From TrEMBL:
<dbReference type="Pfam" id="PF01183">
    <property type="entry name" value="Glyco_hydro_25"/>
</dbReference>
<dbReference type="GO" id="GO:0009253">
    <property type="term" value="P:peptidoglycan catabolic process"/>
</dbReference>
<dbReference type="InterPro" id="IPR017853">
    <property type="entry name" value="GH"/>
</dbReference>
<dbReference type="InterPro" id="IPR002053">
    <property type="entry name" value="Glyco_hydro_25"/>
</dbReference>
<protein>
    <submittedName>
        <fullName>Glycoside hydrolase family 25 protein</fullName>
    </submittedName>
</protein>
<keyword id="KW-0378">Hydrolase</keyword>
<keyword id="KW-0326">Glycosidase</keyword>
<dbReference type="GO" id="GO:0016052">
    <property type="term" value="P:carbohydrate catabolic process"/>
</dbReference>
<dbReference type="GO" id="GO:0016998">
    <property type="term" value="P:cell wall macromolecule catabolic process"/>
</dbReference>
<dbReference type="GO" id="GO:0003796">
    <property type="term" value="F:lysozyme activity"/>
</dbReference>
<comment type="similarity">
    <text>Belongs to the glycosyl hydrolase 25 family.</text>
</comment>
<dbReference type="InterPro" id="IPR018077">
    <property type="entry name" value="Glyco_hydro_fam25_subgr"/>
</dbReference>
Length: 287
């Protein structure tokens, strides 16, 4: 009997695992650190002007450009104001103007008398302007016609926003009607739903104060979304474009610049023109 030939399988040779090289690990770490350093440098370069402003060492080029922008803005401010001589002129402020010396607030560009001021009171459903109370009292003490406005957040409940404004602002005889400031489009709802919310806010506020609110917005926003459906309201329109030198007849107020100088206020301030004289402005105040 023949012996069976048994084939033996060749032994499996396992490759020995290479030990991680000290240098390869060091190179990887170096690459990661270098990436983050380059990222920080890139971000710093992109925001160089803002960082320079923060640390108060703006370059001469930036300072010269700012001075030129202010000069051009001043030229337009004088031109617009001269085109509207006889009309009441005022400003609007918020916490962003910081501490205001109201006793010094008297003229715009040292020439045009300040007759009225709109003051931001509330934002959305839960935020109070930090300077509202002081500004509200200061404007009254300085014998300025004053008005309060609410900055509307489209994605928050309109009734809660209205109630916050009502709780915060007590209007008195001689004050301007309440103002709804709408500038943004909603992210989580349609424009039609936004309009429903605006109408709810306006109705709630009108029922409380017994006076129709004014709506503040930009000219494009007004033309595209509000002009037709909210035609029974009076509008305060913002347009800073250099080409526009006069207001439309159907605008109640025109905010024509955000770069004016007013004594008692540090930095720039918004300026508004009322479509009428001082006596006509007093006529629309609360009785």
């Amino acid at each position: 009997m023949r012996k069976a030939n048994v084939k033996r399988k060749p032994p499996v040779r396992r490759k020995a695992k290479k030990k991680a090289s000290f240098f390869s690990g060091k190179v990887s770490r170096f690459a990661i650190v270098s990436f983050f350093i380059l990222l920080l440098v890139g971000v710093g370069y992109h925001y160089r002007n803002g960082l320079a402003y923060y640390f108060s060492f703006k370059s001469d080029k930036v300072l010269r450009q700012e001075a030129e922008d202010k000069r051009i803005s001043d030229v337009r401010n004088y031109q617009v104001l001269d085109n509207h001589l006889g009309k009441a002129v005022g400003i609007d402020v918020s916490e962003y103007q910081g501490r205001i010396k109201w006793a010094d607030v008297d003229t715009i560009e040292s020439k045009y008398a300040v007759r009225f001021v709109f003051i931001r009171a509330t934002v959305g459903k839960d935020r109070l302007d930090r300077k509202f109370e002081k500004n509200w009292l200061g404007a009254k003490e300085n014998k300025l016609i004053r008005g309060a406005y609410h900055y509307y957040r489209p994605n928050e409940n309109s009734i809660e926003q209205a109630d916050l404004f009502i709780k915060t602002v007590s209007l008195r005889k001689g004050d301007l009607p309440p103002v709804l400031d709408i500038e943004k489009l909603p992210k989580n709802q349609s424009v039609e739903r936004l309009k429903i919310g605006l109408k709810r806010w306006l109705k709630r506020v009108e029922e409380h104060y017994k006076v129709k609110p004014i709506i503040y917005t930009g000219e494009s926003y007004y033309d595209d979304f509000l002009k037709e459906e909210f035609s029974d309201y009076l509008f305060w329109i913002a347009n800073y474009n250099f080409y526009r030198e006069s207001m439309e007849e159907d605008w109640l107020f025109w905010q024509f610049t955000e770069k004016a100088s007013v004594p008692g206020i540090k930095g720039n301030v918004d300026v508004n023109i009322y479509n009428g004289d001082l006596q006509q402005l007093q006529f629309i105040t609360i009785e």
